[in-house]
């Protein structure tokens, strides 16, 4: 979807591709790799390459939307917020227009064809099945993007590959939202009878939903990063670094030995 926005922004500069017709002063010259900042993350993308007619250096033409995202970190956060809210609510059709408007792409460039193509690709990605994946570990975590709270389910298969299994708008303390997310995973091919490890942020609603949908026999582990963060919240600043280092070192040891170090 972000790559679609870059294409739309490039079209505003160079016009659409016109096979068999004479190009304007700025032409399309394939694609090139780039990186877009999204909040604290960086997303690798492929973006169109534009060049002015003529020989020599200095002919590269920048894509306005790409440059805007590089220069203004707030745009990346807003785009991620729109994407997370749209995907979690299954409102795929509104994602591309809202994201395009955020980076200054005119409404006239956002055609029905682009919206439908973006909607279909997001739908296929977010509603794909996992019957053929041997998911051994499921991470469940509540994440905040701007004003949007989202619960994310991330799976790790038997070969070590990660898969975004699903997400829902809402806090991890919301029992109804958590249950709906786990029921969706089962409907999309995650076998509730298979025993697997769940890693959670400590929410009682998460633990209750896991027991209800997948059964109480599954091992559930508290996320270490969340545990460290919670401890840090109770400490004065001058003790945080030492406590964090001690906890991280203890986590690397065998259980009994690690407990003795805390």
Automatic annotation (TrEMBL):
In terms of Pfam families, this protein maps to:
Transposase_mut
Its GO biological process annotations read: DNA transposition
Q: Which GO terms describe its molecular function?
A: DNA binding; transposase activity
Q: What are the entry keywords? A: DNA recombination, DNA-binding, Transposition
Q: Does the keyword DNA-binding apply?
A: yes
Q: Which PANTHER family match?
A: TRANSPOSASE FOR INSERTION SEQUENCE ELEMENT IS1081 (PTHR33217)
Put simply, this protein is called: Mutator family transposase
Q: What organism is listed for this UniProt entry?
A: marine sediment metagenome
């Amino acid at each position: 979807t972000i790559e679609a926005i870059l294409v739309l922004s490039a079209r505003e500069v160079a016009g659409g591709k016109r096979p068999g017709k004479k190009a304007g002063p700025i032409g399309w010259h394939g694609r090139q790799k780039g990186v877009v900042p999204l909040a604290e993350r960086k997303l690798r993308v492929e973006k169109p390459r534009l060049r002015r007619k003529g020989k020599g250096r200095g002919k590269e033409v920048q894509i306005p939307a790409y440059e805007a995202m590089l220069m203004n970190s707030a745009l990346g956060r807003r785009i991620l917020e729109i994407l997370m809210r749209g995907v979690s609510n299954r409102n795929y059709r509104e994602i591309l227009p809202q994201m395009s408007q955020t980076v200054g792409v005119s409404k006239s460039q956002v055609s029905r064809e682009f919206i439908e193509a973006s909607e279909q690709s997001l739908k296929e990605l977010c509603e794909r099945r996992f019957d053929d994946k041997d998911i051994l570990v499921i991470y469940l975590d509540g994440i905040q993007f701007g004003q949007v709270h989202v619960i994310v389910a991330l799976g790790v298969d038997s070969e070590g590959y990660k898969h975004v299994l699903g997400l829902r708008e809402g806090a991890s303390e919301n029992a109804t939202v958590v249950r709906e997310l786990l029921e969706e995973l089962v409907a999309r091919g995650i076998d509730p009878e298979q025993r697997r490890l769940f890693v959670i942020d400590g929410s009682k609603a998460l633990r209750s939903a896991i027991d209800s949908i997948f059964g109480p026999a599954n091992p559930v582990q508290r996320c270490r990063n969340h545990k460290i963060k919670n401890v840090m919240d109770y400490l004065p600043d001058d003790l945080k670094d030492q406590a964090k280092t001690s906890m991280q070192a203890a986590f690397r040891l065998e259980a009994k030995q690690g407990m003795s170090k805390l």
